Input
Amino acid sequence: MIEELCVRFMRPIFAIAMRYDDTLPTLALLQRAGHRICIVSNTPWGSPSGLWHRELLRHGITNHINAAYFCRDCGWRKPSPHIFHHVLSRIGVEAGDALFIGDDPRWDVAGPAAVGMQSVLVVRSGRPANADATVVESLEALIDHPGLR
Output
C-alpha cells in the first residue's frame, strides 16, 4: 500500500518530466568513448529509488549508464560528501578521475569539490549566480571537456 501511495504521489511529477534532445546522443557518445556513467541524484520527499529507476527506463536512459544511485540508496543527500564517497567506492573510481555533471550549484558543486571531484554545471538558460564550476549550455558541450579526456 505504501508503494502505491508513493506511485500516486509521484505520478504528476513524472508526468511533467522531460528528456532533453541531447541526452541520449551525448550519453551514447560518452559510453562509446569508454566513459563510465553513473547517476547520483537526490529524490524529493524520500521517494523510493525504485520509482526513479523506472523513470530512467521510461526515458531510455538506463541502457546508456553503468549505475544510478539515489539518496535513498545510501542515506545521504547531495551536497553531503558522504553520498559521493559512497558512489565512488561502489563504482571503484578515484575522485580525481571523476567528473561530476549537474544542473544545480547548490547540490552539484560543493559536494563533489569536498571529495576532490571536478564538476561541470549544465545551465541551459544562462549562468547561475555563485557557480564555482565550469558552466556549459548543453550536454553536447561536454564531449570536448578536458575532464573527459
